[in-house]
Amino acid sequence: MRTVTNVFLLNLAVSDLLLAAFCMPFTLIPIHLKNFIFGPFMCVAIRYAQGVSVAASCFTLVAISLERYFAICKPLHSRRWQTLSHAYKIIILCWMLALIIVLPIPIATSLMEGGQGRMMCVEIWNNNDLEKAYTIFLDVVLLFIPLCLMTGSYTRIM
């Protein structure tokens, strides 16, 4: 891992591996069985891990696109601050932001009976307006802003 880009790519691989190894099986099995068999702790933990890994991947993709933009379009300016220690700080920031913005998900997630003795892992919000606001917030922070930043940086590179 001698380059900044490789460090970011490793971080992207870790967040995607977290999603693949710990989240996908725990999502697919209950869908197949039509029953969540892993208990209340895993219900909350899996939903939180899913959100964190998706957010960390998203933020890492933005970091990669901005790093590439500065390396290609402003190489003299970027050499001063594009160091491995700076990349590690950006990665820590990506994970901290991911951990924080997804906090409402485990708060709203619970295991409930779905009929015929089957359990379901669902989000239950006490306030529909709050749920809508949080969904819009996630759309803006994890979709709209990253899309604009990545589109802008890659368009300028071309």
Automatic annotation (TrEMBL):
Residue ranges of domain G-protein coupled receptors family 1 profile in the record: 1-158
Top-level taxon in the UniProt lineage: Eukaryota
Major subcellular location class: membrane
Keyword Membrane: yes
GO CC terms of this entry: plasma membrane
Leader sequence segment: none
GO MF entries: gastrin receptor activity; neuropeptide receptor activity
Family stated for the protein in its record: Belongs to the G-protein coupled receptor 1 family.
PANTHER family, sorted: CHOLECYSTOKININ-LIKE RECEPTOR AT 17D1-RELATED, G-PROTEIN COUPLED RECEPTOR
The protein's role, per its UniProt record: Receptor for gastrin and cholecystokinin. The CCK-B receptors occur throughout the central nervous system where they modulate anxiety, analgesia, arousal, and neuroleptic activity. This receptor mediates its action by association with G proteins that activate a phosphatidylinositol-calcium second messenger system.
Protein name: Gastrin/cholecystokinin type B receptor
